[in-house]
Amino acid sequence: MHTLSNSFAAALELILSADPGLLEIVLLSLRVSLTAVAIAALIGLPLGAAVALLRFPGRGAAVVLLNAFMGLPPVVVGLVVYLLLSRSGPLGPLGWLFTPAGMIMAQTVLVLPIVAALARQVMEDLWAEYGEQLRSLGAGPVRAVPTLLWDGRFSLTTAVLAGFGRAAAEVGAVIIVGGNIAGYTRTVTTAIALETSKGDLALALGLGIILLALVAAINAAAYLTAEAARRRAGGAP
Q1: Which residues, at least 6 apart from 107, have a Cβ–Cβ distance to it below 8 Å?
Q2: Per-residue pLDDT at 193 exceeds 50
Q3: Percent helix, strand, coil in the chain (nearest 5)?
Q4: Contact call for residues 144 and 127 (beta carbons, < 8 A)
Q5: Cβ(78)–Cβ(173) under 8 Å?
Q6: What's the pLDDT tens digit per position in 51-98?
Q7: Which residue has the higher pLDDT, 143 or 92?
Q8: Are 170 and 107 in contact (CB under 8 A)?
Q9: How many Å apart are CA 106 and CA 170, to the nearest integer?
Q10: Could you identify which of 13, 167, 185, 204 might form a hypothetical disulfide with 195, taking C-beta atoms 3.0 to 4.6 angstroms apart as the criterion?
Q11: How confident is the model at residue 237 (pLDDT cuts 50, 70, 90)?
Q12: Rounded Cα distance, 177 and 193, in Å
């Protein structure tokens, strides 16, 4: 118990003193995760809208795949991306293996199905509610996409936040693709795993506290966004 209390006190000291090593890890994690989520949102939101509103052969299979890929095992994604980026892989010439760019690619693959699947459900619900009205105004499914994306912006923001939560807490894929190189590809989650195995509980706890605070902030933002959407739907000021 004494050791735990000392480690916790040391962890708080690292956080309050803005330890450079700790900040470096946190900032890299945020840069990788935010970039991956931004790319996933740019691809996933239109993709989800297309699957929701368009009718094409294999649409049912596309919906099933999007939902199934929400639960992709991170280590499998890491392995696939590793093979793609390895020297003998098709993307080997990019030189992204064991770099932040490779980690962003792995996290994008993990987050994209989450954003696309949740966006598809939101867009389907909105089309079911407003489709007839939009068609009466001459707006078919394709022309209705921008309107519905704007109308569902609060719910879609929650989908993006869910993707960010997955990215921020990810460890399996980034440790395979990034290599957990100190000062270059070491993120919060990979550093926690490493420092715990080394017995450096102060740094591991400090990073763990920051990760918990980040997850709590994401959930709070998702809750407030959902509340804003409910108030807007209910016509509250």
Answers
A1: 32, 33, 36, 37, 167, 170, 173, 174
A2: yes
A3: 80, 0, 20
A4: yes
A5: yes
A6: 988 888 888 898 998 888 888 899 999 999 999 999 999 999 999 999
A7: 92
A8: yes
A9: 10
A10: 204
A11: very low
A12: 16
The letter for the amino acid at 237 is P
The span from the CA of 182 to the CA of 179, in Å, is 9
Provide the 10 A C-beta neighbour count for residue 223.
Answer: 12
Residues 214-224: tens digit of each pLDDT: 888 888 887 88
Scanning the structure block, which residue is given the tokens 């991306």? 81
Using the predicted structure, report yes or no on whether residue 235 has a pLDDT greater than 80. no
* Residue 9: count of CB within 10 angstroms of its CB: 12
> Are 55 and 124 in contact, with CB atoms under 8 Å apart?
no
128's tokens: 């079911």
- Which residues, in sequence order, are CB contacts of 220 under 8 Å at separation 6+? none
Dihedral sign from CA coordinates of 89, 94, 95, 96: negative
182: left (phi over 0), alpha (psi -120 to 50) or beta: beta
Q: What are the Cα distances from residue 117, in Å, to 25, 69, 178, 229?
A: 31, 9, 27, 19
Residue 236's pLDDT band, with cuts at 50, 70 and 90, is: very low
Q: Which of 4-13, 92-101, 120-129, 133-142 has the lowest mean pLDDT?
A: 133-142
